[in-house]
Design brief:
single chain, 228 residues, alpha/beta, Rossmann fold, 8 helices, 22% strand, elongated
Length: 228
């Protein structure tokens, strides 16, 4: 899961990024509402933590704009405001949850898990499947339905594999992959993508899966399962 944190307090934003990355989430940060709005519109994020008191556009304006464009990414509002009117106003605009500052990190993590479950219809099996290939986010392992081998992935390998499995059958450009895995403002070279694809191909081969990562000349890669 990739999370965008739109928070103008740098210390809190960086603390949230460190905590969420320590929990295995992919994260990016935005310092004001205008930047946050632009980043949400890229479609790269699975969940947004959105402060209400922001420069340029406040959080409610950002929420109003994305919902008016039918962008349905789950949003958790973060704010020092705690009145019932503030909470109702945010929920009426399309927020999925509301957390009042100051908050404990374990509570935030629980809210993220709750919203994530709600957005997937309450499905408890969170493993990703493409063809005979299975990715387990709880253990960072890759396995195959037709074999007994399991291999653990490194952090970037896991992030790349999850992104490709979420978009199986679609051609993903190197630029898209770089933004998703290394970050919106990443200065990583596109050849990092080629290196990590090579790592994943070896691990897919190790677990003896028939699913493969197909190269699309001049563009990027596609995760492809036989018969799909």
């Amino acid at each position: 899961m990739k999370i965008l944190i739109v928070e103008d307090e740098e210390g809190l934003r960086e603390a949230l990024i460190r905590t969420l990355e320590g929990e295995g989430y992919l994260t990016d940060g935005a310092k004001d509402g205008e930047e946050g709005y632009s980043m949400i519109c890229t479609g790269l994020y699975d969940l947004v933590l959105l402060d209400i008191m922001l420069p340029v556009y406040d959080g409610l304006e950002v929420l109003r704009r994305i919902r008016n464009q039918s962008i349905d990414v789950p949003v958790i509002l973060l704010t020092a405001r705690s009145t019932v009117e503030d909470k109702v106003g945010g929920m009426d605009l399309g927020a999925d949850d509301y957390l009042t500052k100051p908050f404990a990190m374990p509570e935030l993590l629980a809210r993220i898990r709750m919203v994530a479950r709600r957005s997937t219809g309450g499905v408890t099996d969170t493993r990703f499947r493409t063809g005979d290939l299975i990715l387990d986010p709880g253990t960072f392992t890759l396995s195959c339905t037709c074999g007994s081998r399991t291999v653990r992935l490194g952090a970037k390998e896991y992030q790349l594999m999850e992104y490709m499995m979420r978009n199986a059958g679609q051609v993903l450009s190197r630029e898209q992959i770089t933004q998703r895995v290394w970050g919106y403002d990443s200065d990583s070279e596109y050849n990092n993508v080629d290196v990590y694809v090579s790592f994943l191909r070896k691990k897919i081969g190790f677990v003896q899966s028939d699913t493969r990562i197909r190269s699309v000349r001049g563009i990027g890669y596609e995760l492809e399962a036989p018969g799909e």
